[in-house]
Every structure is written in structure tokens, then in C-alpha cells.
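Lecture notes, unit on protein representations.

Consider one protein chain, 322 amino acids long.
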Amino acid sequence: MWRRTRSFFAETFFQTLAGVGAWHPFANPQRHGVEVERDLAYSTDFPAWQRLDLYRPVTRPKPWPVVFYVHGGAFHLLSKETHWLMGLVFARYGYLCVNISYRLAPRHPYPAAIEDTCTAYRWLAKHIVELGGDPTRVAVAGESAGANLITALALATTQRRAEPWAAETFDTGMVPRAVLPFCGMLEVTNAHRFGERRRLPGWVDGMLRDASASYLHGHPQEPSETTALADPLRLIEELGQGRGRIDRPLPPFFAPVGTRDPLLDDTRRLAAALDKLEVPCEARYYPGGIHAFHAMVWDPAARRCWRDALAFLDRSMRPLPR
């Protein structure tokens, strides 16, 4: 009962915010030299879910660098429609943005979301040239649950894994040039850990546990080989401990988070784990920032976060020498 109530209010809030924002004159893509193509199917298995939007920077010369974006929402909320702002921002600055939806838990628990993320990425790899994108300049980005999914995706492109959908993604050979996990929930199991270091409001602790219970519905709530890619942070830490193998180098990471975000520790752990592997990671901590503060673009900290993220992309996505 409480889980459904929390989910209802959270989804209503974010859908209302996204809907109201879309009416603002500055939300018009044409004002920013952006063209949007909506609801392209990246698979026909689950047509109501497996769709994406393309945000094209039509005033910029092709081929465009690409940002593949995966929305958050605790694995059981929201969609590409609530995250139109991210597509618009990246496209405004010259990136072809691929903004996807995926199957939501608990109706579709693990591995549905990461399987769909990998399927959409394979669709991109197949069509990127005809879309005007540069296959050598692809970044993956997402916030919260989406940060989890794009970190797992990065592992699937660099680690030959047993999961068929991960193995097929590895076989595309298209490794991201950059990974941007904003305020990530990077380990879904052991959701109680967030409240152990510091006391959390009951509704926040409840939402974190809801995310874990929904995504892992029908699976163990503790770390398990069957749900390994639900915990990409744990896999990266294990690589630093000499467990597991990496077949291709991990790309650089940009990992922003607010200091008031209950998920803060996952970004700290990610930065430490990548440092141990000698993988470049720019972890940025924004004082006073709450969860997903970067979506509140009227806030100076959010604007600073976007400037930092775009500067990181500019450095990471320069054309390769011919």
C-alpha cells in the first residue's frame, strides 16, 4: 500500500513538472536548432515500452557526436517523455541524443531494463551512420536508475559476459567514449545500506527500498550471480580486487552528485573503484544538491553541473585522428 502511494505521488510530481516545463517557450526545440523524431521502435517484442526519441542538432554539421540517454525513476517510474529536457540540452550543444524508454518493474523485473537498454544500444550501433551519428564518438548518460543502467551497459561493451543480451552488445564493438552516471544508484541489492551511514527520512528510505524490491522482484535481495548487472558498482570494485576480467578498456567517467543526495556514497565508491583501475573519473560533488538536482535548471548548481558535464564531453568526444 505505502509503496504504491509513494510511487503514485512521485510519478505525478515528475510528470506534472515535465509537462508544465514543456509549455515554456524555451522548451521549443526549434528555438535551439533541434529537430525531434518521436517514438521510434528499437524492438518489436514489447512495442508499448521499447521506443526512443531522437533529438537532432540540425544546424550543426554531420556526422554528429552521440549521447545515448537512459532515464531514471527507481526502475519502476517515468519515461523518455518525462526526460525531454535531457535530450534537448544535449542536442542544443551539438549532440545527436538518443533518449530511450524501457520496460518498468515490478511488472518487468530484472533483467528487463538492462536488457532493453542493451537492445536499444544495439539498434543505435546498427543505424548510427544513417542517422547522421559518428560511431567513434558515442557517450552514454543517465541519472539515478538510468545511471545504473548505463554503467552496466558500459560493462557489457567492455566485458565479454555470459548473458546473451550482454554478449550481443559486446559483439557490436561500439564502446562508449564517455560514461556519465548522474547521481547513480549503482548497486541495487542491499538497499538498507544507505540508511546505515546516516539516518534518512522514512519516505526516502522507503523509496530506496522500493526501487530495490521492484527491480529485483522474484530475485534475491542480496548480491547474486543471476543479478550481477543490477550491481555494476560491485562488478567494478571486484575488477579492482582482481576478480573478473575486462576485455576492453573502460572509458572515462563523469560522475556528478549533490552532497545532500542519499545516493552520494555510491558515487564516492565508484570514483575510488575506478581510481584503483586507473580509469579516469571526474567525480563532482555539488554542495547542497539534492537527488537529481541537475534537472532543476533554474538552480545555479544545476547549471554549473551541466557546464561541467558538457565540458567533460567536449574533452572526451573530440574526433579521432584520421
